[in-house]
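Hi all, long-time lurker, first post. I run a small reading group and we've been trying to get comfortable going from sequence to structure in the token notation. Rather than ask abstract questions, I figured I'd post a concrete chain and ask someone more experienced to write out its structure so we can walk through it together at our next meeting. Sequence below, copied exactly:
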Amino acid sequence: MSDETPIEGNDPTEGAAAPLADRRRVLMLGAITAGAVVSIRPALGQTAGSVLTCEIPVPDMSRAGSFIDPTGAVVPAGTKGAFPPAPRPFKGEEVRRALAGTQLPGTSYESNRAYIGYIRRLQRGQGGFTCFASLQMPRG
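-- Answer (accepted) --
Happy to help. Here is the structure in token form:
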């Protein structure tokens, strides 16, 4: 009779084992969740840092050499009243400050307005769009 398996409900330890197993499962889930939180937090910090160092070329590489008119539109080189391309891409931090009211480095009042107008018009697929979009996201 020692080869027989106990019939369900006849094991006296079964009632005590079930809550213990449930507690273990909850603790394991808690440990997994805590590990996810610990690993996500540094990634968020890294993202915030990369947003500040990402670059926005004005204009993007596909239109290199084109000028930017006072409204921020890309126009052919030499267009009267338009501004030449920025000498270097702007860092995300520089653009963030300019959107808040300061001036982009190396720009006049008028060229700053034109470059900011261009940056605000960026669309998916253009160089610098991802950086600009990241600047628009709230940081938690």
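A couple of things your group might point at:
The CA atoms of residues 59 and 85 lie 6 Å apart.
The chain is about 50% helix and 5% strand.
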